[in-house]
């Protein structure tokens, strides 16, 4: 049974990845989920698998080298998928130090622990042991309309403390691959959306606010462009890179779903109107009148767009979910999990599990 160490597995993408992997591989794999349980970590995301014999949760900080080393010492870990990161740009503008600590120093701790556990006396590494570092397209900076796409060879030009910290972590992984021949890959993905996404992010925020008749805040003129990737497609891509990708390579994972932010808002509103029954009182709340333009974010990148040509050619991955289909699946999931959204927005999701693990 191959053991995977997933960092940040209680977060949005991490929890979706764990669901995807357990569904695909069943009891042929074991997953150890390491998460600090900050505001973005929610074990309710994994409630339906928490009692599975091949799933283990460990509350730990990736910056705690002693705890991380112990996990490697006590388990035969063959795969690391490193999601754990502070990821919200607005929070990084307010408090850059937290992002540097978690995203840079935390990645360094993970690299050192894996290197120590996997390195053989001759300086080579145990066969079939692999580290995958999950990063973002934001490290590439910003594109103008019609300028083209981000490729793996695009120079890094981060503009926010968040993207700078992720760029720094990418550089550390690259340095370990070059210096030690450390068995790793890097993936840089476009904006994810789908189930379990924390509602400070654009899509769940708009869905939740629209259903409550609250204002829908849109930065600047609303014409900033992002490439949207359905989270399950991303999870599939990560798995395929670890199993089929060439070691030491970087792969961009993009959705071919470029949309302006204001387009996203309008698509959500129209989709909600179509999906809500006439008898549902929330249908009368959903309106374009709720759209409110607010002061633009500092250093707001104008456009992100990924060209996933390399991962298509070398790994065989492609984005399967177009945005119009993915947003329907996402909204349907939120309709079916209204209690989850209520617990997250109220903060109740933190109380039970935080108390449980703080008392251990």
TrEMBL record:
Key word Lyase present: yes
Cofactor: NAD(+)
Keywords: Lyase, NAD
Protein origin, superkingdom: Bacteria
Gene3D superfamilies: NAD(P)-binding Rossmann-like Domain, UDP-galactose 4-epimerase, domain 1
NCBIfam families named in the record: dTDP_gluc_dehyt (TIGR01181)
EC numbers, comma separated: 4.2.1.46
GO molecular function: dTDP-glucose 4,6-dehydratase activity
UniProt keyword Heme present: no
Pfam families in UniProt: GDP_Man_Dehyd
Catalysed conversion reaction: dTDP-alpha-D-glucose = dTDP-4-dehydro-6-deoxy-alpha-D-glucose + H2O
Family: Belongs to the NAD(P)-dependent epimerase/dehydratase family. dTDP-glucose dehydratase subfamily.
Domain NAD(P)-binding: 5-330
Protein name as catalogued: dTDP-glucose 4,6-dehydratase
Gene Ontology terms describing biological process: nucleotide-sugar metabolic process
